[in-house]
User: What shape does this take?
Amino acid sequence: MNYLIVTNDPVSTEKAVLEHAKTYNPSDVFWVKKSEDKKEITVDVINNMIDQFNLASVSGKKLFIVFQAELMNSNAQNKLLKTIEEATDTTVLFLCQNLDRILSTVRSRCIIHYHNTHDNQTLKLMAANNPDYTAITSAARQLITATRIETAMNYLPVLAKPENLVLALDALNRELATAELSTNKKLAAYHALAKIQRNIASNCNATNAFDLLLIALF
Assistant: This one.
């Protein structure tokens, strides 16, 4: 059986999956990740995974865990199709944050689960390791409550830094939730933040999308 687990909190999801892996014989558990020197999960990694599929299991069942499955390039995903379709004594868990980057042919061969957490351990870890975090939260609050666009623009540099974008979006969404704005203005701002999120997910230029947020607010 193949499962595609879409998560907003990969740290918590990976912990849960690792606990599940303990129910298998260690010799029958396989971890699939991108090579450290690569930006994608390539066909070479998938070929090695397929080789492990073809080996007999120790306990009668095998478990494959594919971390950051959205990093599989299209060739790697296509290479895997026949294998996951024909697997019988094997469970494959694909962990991903961006379902749009998984080919429809892979999605159709999986049961899709959404694992979203309110106590997001991934964001907490990112915040603890980001020296700008205090500045990010302050800038988000000041931008949402600014009364003039010229003032709001002063807070964009720290929010729009590529390494700060995920934390900035979280902070902006939290500030927007409690902001005293008209319904139409708040809705437009949420749409702008969603656009920034989609740009991040698709590796587009997310910083330019902050213009939409300014337009929505002012």
